[in-house]
Amino acid sequence: MQLPPLLAGLVLAAALAAVMSTSSGALIATATVFSQDIVARLRGRDIEAASEHDHIRSNRLYVAGFGIVMVLIACALQDVVAALTVAYDILVGGLLVPILGGLIWRRGTNVGAVAAMAVGTVATLATLIAFGDIYAVEPIYFGLASGLVVFVVGSLLSKPTAPEVMAEWDRRSRGEQTVGQQVTDATI
After folding, report:
1. What angle (nearest 5°) sits at the alpha carbon of residue 65, between those of residues 60 and 67?
2. In sequence order, which ranges of the chain are alpha helices (DSSP H)?
3. Residues 117-143: pLDDT tens digits?
4. Total-model pTM
5. Residue 181: is it exposed, middle or buried by C-beta count within 10 angstroms (0-12/13-18/19+)?
6. Do 152 and 112 meet the contact criterion of CB atoms below 8 Å apart?
7. What are the residues whose beta carbons fall under 8 Å from the beta carbon of 177, sequence distance 6 or more?
8. Which residue among 2, 106, 128, 184 is least packed, with the fewest CB closer than 10 Å?
């Protein structure tokens, strides 16, 4: 059974709107995390010290840059399943070790985590290219192994996380609130 042309057009427009909304949200989130959580920290800048104009300008530049990269990847991988496979390979191979390492190993540091993300992602992508099979599982193993080595070595070679930061982490992990949160919650 076919839909009437008007209804088919509405369904197609709704599907396209959902795809565009998801894509733009992912693009904005990627640019924001990259600029504020990675680049700003690696440069040693205080995020709060920058003006709102600087935040907006840098985020727009990162969104444009990542948008161009996304378009190039979409042109290269014209198969949605292949694109999702590459994305999940990067997610697992590049991010799993730093995330779990940060949750489990108290000696883990930002330096170790960022280095592990970079090396794990590059190792995963390089192995994908070397294997020539986008659906191969082995690239994930190479990304995990290289990320683990770099996370441990990078964390051990860098300065440990400050005790006050660890205390705040422990407090939040236990679900305790700060004094400011308790006052805000009481007034609501």
Report:
1. 90
2. 5-32, 40-43, 52-76, 80-90, 96-104, 110-131, 138-157, 163-173, 179-187
3. 999 999 999 999 999 888 889 999 999
4. 0.68
5. exposed
6. yes
7. 185
8. 2
